[in-house]
Amino acid sequence: MDSVFVIKDILTTEQVASICNNLNQVEFDDGKVTAAGMAKAVKNNQQVMVDKVPDLMPLLSKAIMANPLFNAVTMPRAIVNVMLSRYQPGMEYGTHTDSAIMPGGNRADISFTLFLSSPDAYEGGDLVLETALGEQRIRLNAGSLILYPTGELHRVSPVTRGERIVIVGWIQSRIRDSRKRQILLDLDSARKHYLEKVGHDRTVDIMLKTSMNLRRMWDE
Ligand SMILES: O=C(O)CCC(=O)C(=O)O
Ligand SMILES: [Fe+2]
């Protein structure tokens, strides 16, 4: 994963509904509490760490941390600082860059946003990523997740109607360099493609051996 990557429907409609149903018992904090440095000045939202929300951690572990695509793409060593963020009318998160090192000491390589509100439940509230190809404005369906490199500048545009609720979090990858992650992903997909077309022969063994040896070399 070198730029952005979307995993559609990582949560079912029922899972999204069960999370949202629990939220009226939850007290949100001012988002400035967890913003570091420059981000504090531009952050205007509400948030709560996911371990404060009843039943949320087990659900996320099952649905996200165990999702094969999520694992293949991010190669996670740790998933940290996972929180619910809420944006009501007038709230936004101005242009900023996320911290390199999260509280607790994990490096943040990949950021994710998991949308819980459906896009027609609010206006504004786009996640805007500044990429080499220009600005990308992201509004996903409830239950879908976007992964993007933590090092990119990004913002959440002001919400003008309704409520935007998302889960955000950060991943330390076992493979720090996104170019190396891409090589491992490509090698894996080439091997699977070959297996389907040709079947299992010595080429497959050598490709797998190469993947494993690269992982051994790059894993941290
Ligand atoms: O809400 C989002 O989609 C991203 C928020 C964000 O940039 C952050 O919490 O650092
Ligand atoms: Fe951010």
TrEMBL record:
Q: Which cofactor does it need?
A: L-ascorbate; Fe(2+)
| Keywords on record | Dioxygenase, Iron, Metal-binding, Oxidoreductase, Vitamin C
Q: Which GO terms describe its biological process?
A: DNA damage response; intracellular iron ion homeostasis
State any single GO MF term: 2-oxoglutarate-dependent dioxygenase activity
Q: Which residues bind Fe cation?
A: 96, 98, 154
The record's section on PANTHER family has: PKHD-TYPE HYDROXYLASE YBIX
Could you identify this protein by its name?
A: Fe2+-dependent dioxygenase
Q: Which organism is it from?
A: Methylotuvimicrobium buryatense (Methylomicrobium buryatense)
